[in-house]
Amino acid sequence: MGAVPKRKITSRRRKNRRAHTYAAPTLPNLVPCPNCGEPIRPYHACPYCGYYRGKQVIEIEE
User: Fold this and answer.
1) Does the pLDDT at position 4 exceed 80?
2) Residue 52 near residue 45 (C-beta atoms within 8 A)
């Protein structure tokens, strides 16, 4: 015979346990680009100027 709960799990307790699964997505951290100052995601090439760690890695058309 398998494990059987002794008492009913209330809906509030069940929802609290599952709450982290349905949490709203958070905004990504943004840091200013050292080259142009626009807010970008850390460790990503800047989509505005094309620089990453002081080097031009993406050619941006103006």
Assistant:
1) yes
2) yes
d(CA 62, CA 52): 18
- Give the predicted TM-score (pTM) of the model: 0.55
User: Using CA atoms, how far apart are residues 62 and 46, in angstroms rounded to an integer?
Assistant: 14
Q: What is the DSSP string of the chain?
A: -----SSPPPHHHHHHHHGGGGPPPPPPP-EE-TTT--EE-TTS--TTT-EETTEE-SPPP-
In sign, the C-alpha dihedral spanning 11, 14, 16, 19 is negative
Instruction: Say how far apart CA 37 and CA 46 lie, in whole Å.
Output: 10
Question: How high is the pLDDT of residue 36?
Answer: 94
